[in-house]
Predict the structure of Membrane protein.
Amino acid sequence: MARLLGRLGGASAAHPWRTLLAWLLALVAAVGVAGVAGGDTHDDYSIPGIPYQVGTAYLAEHFPELSGATARVVVHGDRAVPEPLLTELAARLKVMRGVAMVAPPRLSADGDTALVAVNYRIPVTDFSGSEGVDALRAAAEPVAKAGFTVAFGGEVPENFSAPSGSAEAVGVIAALLILVAALGSLVAAGLPILVALMGLGVGTSLITLLAAVTDISSTAPTIASMVGLGVGIDYALFLVSRHVEGLRRGLSPREAAAEATATAGSSVLVAGLTVLVSLFGLNLSTLPVYASFAYATFATVGAVMIASITLVPAMLGLAGRRVLPRRERTGDPVRTAVRTGPTRTERWARWVGARPLRSALAALVVLLALAAPVLGMRTWPQDAGSQPESNTTRVAYDLVATEYGPGANGPIVLAMPAPLAAQVAAALPGQAGVKAVTPPLIQGQAAVLTVEPATGPQDERTTELVKRLRATLPDGVMVTGTVAGFGDISDRLAERLWIVVAFVVALSLLLLTVLFRAPVVALKAAVMNLLSVAAAYGVITVVFQTDAGARLVGLPHGGPISSWVPILMFTVLFGLSMDYEVFLLSRIREDWLATGDARGSVVRGLAATGKVITSAAAIMVAVFVGFALDPDVTVKTTGVGMATAVLIDATVVRMVLVPATMALLGRANWWLPGWLDRLLPKTAHAAAPERVLARL
């Protein structure tokens, strides 16, 4: 593999304009085809077999007007809401696309607030972009012009999140500043940004094309961009830094590009493949929306990975020696004097290597302390109660809770055969947690009624009420509705998390064992990545479940962690954590193959990669922090969690725990039993540089 990549890098560097032209044509073609044949994002939250889905199917058969999406229009003012204004509002709502029924307005006790519920005959996923919200705003325009506050809640408004490019812009600007500081050359700093954006453009076009043939979640492109931008810049940085090392040793630009692609390019390929393998785990969640996250991120990471090993060497060949800092290009003997003493990273590596047990235990204590809060993590799919106070859905949520009680934001729907309706309706009033019950609506042989809990949707007592109703009500009664559905989704995701973890860890172990031919190293890498992810889980639990932490990230109060986050974070982070692991281990393995010095190779490998890993991690953190500014709670939580995990991984894990454990194990790191040696293919991954050049 190293020999093939070296030839590819050398050819790209020798013919840079051809490679650049090929990528420009690929980008133009991808954007053009996506514009003509691409599709729109579409969420699919269906999970066959869960109780909520069974109840929804029953409603679709017997009460089609209650089986689709819902919306709520909340009107509030400093005076009583006029009845003619509400009549006009109801009439305008009824003519919107897909509307099946508009309930009579529910007035608050003092009459200054009205709640109008809208039921659609189509699911919320049938709305494209802001279509549903725009229709609601148009219908309520006369009410707003009359001086009343109008806010929108329910599935239709809550399912729409306005896209924003600010996260990407923040990440790119921060990454450029870090790259300039790390590489000392604006040309060298600009290359990773350019390559990442080129790959991101192709990847985004591929996502649009995928949306034409399968459901791609509306949030998936944002998550894919976050991951693709971070890894794209990091992969290019690994190659550029290795290329600069070659130039400083006297290699020509073409030779340096070939060596960088053969060595660092091999690490990029392994790291990228690990990310792609990890993404397959999302399919085991059994949620179509997660599968779409996998497809979108797979396309983006694949595009930036290919761009890194082809476009980076071409751009390096084109740039020549301009990737070096100006003081080195001018040849000033004073300004370019070579440092003869050890670097700070090398001194640190020696210090850790001399105290491996103490260092490993200290790092382990820190990781376990950070991970401890995860024991108190509670998950719940995001709803309006988690949104910033400026969001219209949050305004509606707070108004409803204040005027009608918290339970009015999460009614529970009971569907059943008609003969059971009277018995159920008589048994519910007075039960713990039940505030109100509507009279049964009977249609043919089926009946439906609504229970209003005394507590809000995110309250654990509401979830307990749903479970109690399912356990105590007669057979044939189906408990459904948004709150019940959220509870079922949370339970399913909690069940599938461990299956996803086992799958991703097993595949990653297999991949690393094959490529490094070192089962001990592969097992150790998996354990350390699990520790990094657990620590990140602990941090987001503290940040998002406490009021003080939530206010730090722009949320009004703490609440449960979005149910979508744990599995998504694990699959993405487990792959991303391998980036630094592979880059560091590859360099250590190179030295080990060349010298046979197990302990010394750890010191020299860490000294050679420490600055690059730190810079790459800083870039990744900057990109993820940019996405933490996104108003969507799922994206915000994922951004904070991934930034935290990368920071922990590049400091506590890579700079302390990895070198300490490798120093403790010594030659045992590279132990390979004979029977496994015969089974594993002979790979050339991360061979010593001089051997690579000799084969090119």
The mean pLDDT is 85. The chain has four domains: 1-39+166-327, 51-159, 345-378+493-671+682-688, 411-481. The beta strands are 70-76, 99-102, 106-107, 113-120, 149-153, 412-417, 434-437, 441-443, 446-453, 478-480. The CA atoms of residues 413 and 655 lie 54 Å apart.
